[in-house]
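Same chain as my last thread, 286 residues:
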Amino acid sequence: MLAHDTAPRREPDRLAPRRQLTAGDPRVTERVPGRTRHAVAVSRSVPVVGLTVGRAEARWGPWTGGAFLLDDDYVEAVERAGAAAIMLPTAGMLAADPSLALDRIDALVLTGGCDVDPGTYGDIAQRETGPTDPGRDACEIALVRAAFARDLAVLATCRGMQLMNIAFGGTLRQHLPGRQGEQHRRREGEFTRHSVSLSPGSLAARVAGEERHDVDSHHHQGVDRVASNLRVSGRAADGLIEAIEDPSRAFALGVQWHPEVDQASGLIASLVAQLVNRDAGQEVAR
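reply #2:
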């Protein structure tokens, strides 16, 4: 029953069995001011997607302090695709034992956030490098390495793509200068719309449904040296790497943009479809 449902309750012994929803089933929606929320009957027949969450200073009610925060666009994009989302705080226990999270999820999404600590790829911070969270870096590196080891589906967005590259030996450009930087983050707090070219036949092109794809970006760093197990599958018009993937895995994709804010994007839906097809024993075209 939805939180705001005011219908009279029936006696427990007359309640019909609750129908378990699977990906693709019609879902009940609950309307609240300003948006539509999706109510999903969560069961193990529904894929579960883990979303990494970083620390930030926040205010709630009379309180101000540290919190684990995630833009709700991620959760809503996962639920629109027919999966359940759970948030994974990037804390020390998961860094020490990623299986605590990975045993409970069907896919891992490395989300966007603050700059990655240059020390993780053997560099020192430049003047333009923003605040970092070394604890988050360590946790997400442990999670993505363990996810790859068990061939768990992985989607990494923006910072997440950069982190995935670093986890396997890649490096970053700490700051995109001048006009190039403006093509990817014209103003802080606003997404910049631009096009990327995706390699024919790549996972990136298949899930986007096209080889020229319009995306929403907000970043001032980028991939420099690509990890040896990953291949470049997308670039911006200025040559910046926009997508990387591991073709030896069932679904391992990093994108430099933010598909969660674009309701027309098929990336997160394709991730969930991969999980549904796997559970149904269907072969996913490669």
